[in-house]
Every structure is written in structure tokens, then in C-alpha cells.
Design goal:
Layout (H helix, E strand, L loop, with lengths): L14 E4 L9 E6 L9 H15 L7 E5 L3 H13 L2 E6 L5 H9 L3 E4 L8 H16 L13 H8 L1 H6 L5 E5 L4 H13 L4 E7 L33 E5 L1 H15 L5 H16 L4 E6 L13 H7 L6 H10 L5 H6 L1
Parallel strand pairs: 2-9, 3-4, 4-5, 6-7, 6-9, 7-8
Antiparallel strand pairs: 1-2
Helix pairs in contact: 1-2, 1-5, 2-3, 5-7, 8-9, 9-11
The chain binds pyridoxal-5'-phosphate (PLP).
């Protein structure tokens, strides 16, 4: 099949069935591999949803400017779209950004704007947002996607990712939350069309999306130091929290025993899905895997890095014990604790 452009390679990602003794007999676990998108993450979909809506409603035009604060997967996707759809991209980053991600942005011809100092109150995250606001004053016609609160983010997943998932024979969907965009977009359609299908959110210990305090953690992409408006708890049945060690151990097991190399949030999602199948009467689950382990070869897949961070890999028996005891709460119970 010959496609029109790289944009047509976004979405329609493959699904595999995981066969593992940790899955209870007679139950099924499917992995939706979002790392088959062009920049190897679910954020290609999110970025395209944000850009497409802005092009459709005139907030962004060919030759125009898009400005965003990001140091991760969304930036890669926005930079690719700028090159493919002919608009300029300014990405505001801070000195903590990894050199390979910086190269990624520049390879697509984006302009990288580095803040030098943390903000007085909120560290670099706040400093970057302040800089975006300064740039928006300088370029008043520029478009700021603001993935955390912009409803175009979940809406795109509601119209695309969700439809792909609804075709699968499953009684539950499990996903990781940061902005909430992909899981809550999927969850909204699931709840409209198949209300008995359970939507399960997972987060990393330390994130403040469902817990009321923030503490730094190691895995990337998932969690946040606050809860964005795109986290719509009305479409989530249960929430479960796992720590860095559990997620990273699951990643290494999947890579070594199944040849499936996922990012830290993917490990978190699979661990949660296994625990959900074990502790609920659902007979099947789709786990949405946000990105590839290639992004983290020198981190979660590197023993020297793990040793430096104090992470010891759990063995299969440890993982099984953790899965058996994992707790699932409703989002409201979790937020009120
Ligand atoms: C690796 C990874 N995992 C999980 C997520 C969470 O996705 P969302 O922002 O749609 O909640 C992201 C999004 O940045 C991500 O890049």
C-alpha cells in the first residue's frame, strides 16, 4: 500500500496477544503497540489530533508558528508534523533534557528554545511555561497546543484510537495517565458504546494525578505533578498505582522473555493488566503500550543505570506476589484518601 505522507503512518497500530504463565488460565491479554507510530509513541496521535484541530479551526496555518513546552515524546511528534505540514515549531526545553531528544527535535528542523534558570516557585516546568507565555506575546499569532487542558487531545483519541480498540474482543482496557488524553478519550467511547467494559487507569508512585502529593520518580512519560483537565475520572472505573521497581522489572521481563521492549509506562500498564486479570472477573484485557524501550536503552535496560538509581530487578516469583496483592480503587476513593 502506498500512503500519501508520513502522517498516514500514524495510528492503526498492531495488537499482539501475550502468552505468559502470569495470565490466569482461560483469560487473554492483548497488547496494543503504540510504538509502531512514526516516532515510536502514542504521542504521534495526540500531536496530530492537536495540530489537525488547529489547522481546521484556523488557529494554525501553513507557514505559521507552533510553540510548546515539552522535553519528551510529544515534542518529537510536533516537530515531525511541522516538517511534514510546513509550519514552524518552537520547542521550549530546559537543561535537564536528554541530548538524544534534543537531536531528535533539531533533526526535524525545529527551533529549540532553552530556558536557563528555574522559576522562583516551580522549578523548570514552571520556567518553561513562563517562557512559552513570553514567546506567545512576541508571536501573537502563534499556536500553543497545551496538551494538558486542550479537549482536542482526548477528542482525537475518542475518534481514532478508541475505534481501533472497540474492534477487539475485550472486557477491559488498561492505560497509563499523564495528561489523561489517550486513555480518557478511549474510555469515553468505551463507556458510550459498551458500558460494561471496564476502564482501568494506572499511574506511577510519586505522581500527583491520583495521589495528593508529588515525589520525583524514575520512569518517563507517565504521571504528572498535578492533574490536567484532560483526566476525566468519570470514564475510569478503577485506578492502580505501581512503583518504579515494579514497572522496570516488568519491562525487563517482557524484553527478555517475549522480545517485546517497551518504555517504563508500558511495563506499568502490563503489570497492572496482569493484576487486573488476576483480581477481577474480567476474562480479557487490552493494555495500551505508550512507547518503545529504545527510548530507554541507557536507562531502564542498563544495569549500571539501575544500580546507580538503586533499582534491583524483581524475579518472576516476586512479580507474581505483587500482582496477587495489587490494590484497585475507584478514582474518587483514591483522590479522597
Ligand atoms: C511514554 C508515555 N507514557 C504514557 C503517557 C501518558 O499519555 P497521556 O498524556 O495521553 O495520558 C505518555 C504521554 O506523554 C508517554 O509519552
Amino acid at each position: 500500500m502506498i500512503l500519501n505522507s508520513i502522517i498516514d503512518c500514524i495510528g492503526n497500530t498492531p495488537v499482539i496477544e501475550l502468552k505468559d504463565d502470569l495470565i490466569p488460565k482461560g483469560k487473554r491479554l492483548y497488547l496494543k503497540l503504540e510504538y509502531f507510530n512514526p516516532n515510536f509513541s502514542v504521542k504521534d496521535r495526540t500531536a496530530y489530533g492537536l495540530v489537525k484541530a488547529a489547522l481546521d479551526n484556523g488557529k494554525l496555518k501553513e507557514g505559521g508558528i507552533l510553540i510548546e513546552s515539552t522535553s519528551g515524546n510529544l515534542g518529537k511528534s510536533l516537530c515531525m508534523l511541522g516538517a511534514a505540514l510546513k509550519f514552524k515549531v518552537i520547542i521550549v526545553v530546559d537543561p535537564k533534557i536528554s541530548p538524544s531528544i534534543l537531536n531528535w527535535y533539531e533533526a526535524y528542523g525545529a527551533h529549540v528554545d532553552m530556558v536557563k534558570e528555574p522559576a522562583e516557585n516551580g522549578g523548570f516546568q514552571q520556567a518553561r511555561i513562563n517562557r512559552v507565555k513570553e514567546l506567545l506575546e512576541k508571536y501573537p499569532n502563534a499556536y500553543w497546543p497545551n496538551q494538558y487542558d486542550n479537549p482536542d487531545n482526548p477528542y482525537y483519541h475518542y475518534n481514532t484510537t478508541a475505534k481501533e480498540i472497540m474492534k477487539l474482543p475485550t472486557s477491559s482496557v488498561i492505560g497509563a495517565i499523564s495528561t489523561g488524553g489517550h486513555l480518557c478519550g478511549v474510555g469515553k467511547l468505551v463507556k458510550e458504546k459498551s458500558p460494561n467494559t471496564k476502564v482501568i487507569a494506572c499511574d506511577v508512585k510519586g505522581s500527583a494525578v491520583f495521589d495528593n502529593f508529588f515525589k520525583p520518580y524514575l520512569i518517563n512519560g507517565v504521571g504528572l505533578s498535578w492533574r490536567g483537565e484532560n483526566t476525566d475520572i468519570s470514564v475510569i472505573d478503577k485506578v492502580s498505582i505501581s512503583n518504579d521497581q515494579e514497572a522496570i522489572s516488568m519491562c525487563n521481563l517482557l524484553a527478555k522473555e517475549h522480545g517485546v521492549m517497551v518504555g517504563g509506562s508500558g511495563g506499568l500498564v502490563v503489570l497492572t493488566a496482569l493484576a487486573w486479570l488476576k483480581n477481577s472477573d474480567c476474562d480479557s484485557a487490552v493494555a495500551i503500550i505508550p512507547d518503545t524501550g529504545i527510548n530507554y536503552l541507557d536507562q531502564i535496560y542498563n544495569k549500571a543505570w539501575r544500580d546507580e538509581k538503586g533499582i534491583t530487578l524483581l524475579n518472576r516469583t516476586n512479580i507474581e506476589n505483587i500482582i496477587n496483592k495489587k490494590v484497585f480503587s475507584t478514582p474518587k476513593e483514591k483522590i479522597l484518601i
